[in-house]
Amino acid sequence: MKKKTIIRLSITLIVIAALALWINSRWSAWFHNEAELPYAPQSEPGRVLLTFGDENELSRNISWQYDSIVVPSHVELVDTLSKDTIQIDAQGEIFQSRSGKAAYYVAKLRTLQPDRYYTYRVCNEGKTSSWYSFRTYNQSTRNDYSFMYVGDVQDSINGKANQFFREALQRHPDTEFFVFGGDLTERPTEQRWEETYRGLDSIGQQYPVITVTGNHEYLKYIIRKLERRFSLVFSYYLDSMVGENQVYTLKYNDMQIFCLDSNREFFYLWTQKKWLEEQLKKSNARWKIVVLHHPLYSIKGSMNNLFQRTMFNPLVEEYGVDLVLQGHEHAYARMTAHGENGEAQAPVYTVSHCSPKNYYIEFDKRFDKFGTGSRYYQQIRVHGDTLTMNAYDATTNDLYDAVDIIKDKTGKSRLEDRGKETPEALIFHSNGGKKEEAFQKRIDEYKQRKGIQ
């Protein structure tokens, strides 16, 4: 055998061996699914969740669980102003997971009036839930409204998320609804869903909830799979999904929110691109917000999420999206676009999370601000000619970052960066490992570059 042939063969074997070792090291991350423990269905109507319904800001859906067979069910809804009580029939469906089954119910409320308080309870064959309440707003006469955005939650710390949400609501009592950036549930198992409902207790029954899908909600296969359980819980997707893509849009006063399903393969993302372009083209909203799980500009590496950026970011720029809300990378970051003269302008991109887990990130120069080692939530407020993004540290409720997008009557916007006055908190404690030492070095270099003490 010739020497060159031996060299080529040796190199090929080395490459194959290295590839095999790499695949073996990544196999669990790519394809391991957490085991689901056997479970029994709810013996009383429970796990009640209030969401928006179709694209109408006054629509609501109510979902819940009860037993493992479908029985006659409805919602009793009381208008506290008129004292009228109406009954809304619900549709039931049995979902079989890997280790059990349960009946899921959805009732659609489509005759709500603006500026009203309602109370409701869910009913199955004489069994009822507790009474809950919510409010609708008179959007047409107001120019000041807000919602709360929370990135990854993945609450596996015994209900800490619920405490964060309650404290945030105490600070921001004008909050009208919640938007979550995916990975609200740690894994698609019954035991993890139980954690999710515990986190939303007393909140998800009073404030409409929107969430996009995250990678942790999916089962890992060569082609990823999202259980129908997700759509039965966040039931607005039952009517809005395109094929197997969990996409949704909500028009709320003069703002429109566009939700994407970013944890998908290329051909699914292509379908979503067409959907997003259609929605943006016909939108007459003054303020446009895109929500997806995977950041279009990653803070873990510039090559990450290239498919998502290629599909969606040109549309974000072309159709005047003001704000992009993202999660997945378990830190805080904010990036603003810049014009030809270097002036800051929309869109504003943010990455945020409220999870017990913290990731190592890169400190890309395109970003204006970072935060590590803590948890965050954002208040998005529209008031007059301004959309304000205020980011708070969820552990202290202190303001961490703030940007105003100010838009004139022609639609041209300018930015005011109020967050540069608040010092960046880069919390990290190394245990001496190589990855930890490398991350600490990146932090030190970033601090030196920014002049952070």
TrEMBL record:
Residues 45-136 form the Purple acid phosphatase N-terminal domain. Gene3D superfamilies: 3.60.21.10, Purple acid phosphatase-like, N-terminal (2.60.40.380). One of its GO terms (molecular function) is acid phosphatase activity. InterPro entries: Calcineurin-like_PHP, Metallo-depent_PP-like, PAPs-like, PAPs_N, Purple_acid_Pase-like_N. Residues 414-440 are annotated as: Disordered. It comes from the Bacteria. Residues 147-332 form the Calcineurin-like phosphoesterase domain. The keyword Amino-acid biosynthesis does not apply. It holds the Pfam family Metallophos. Residues 414-423 have a biased composition (Basic and acidic residues). This is Serine/threonine protein phosphatase. It comes from Phocaeicola coprocola.
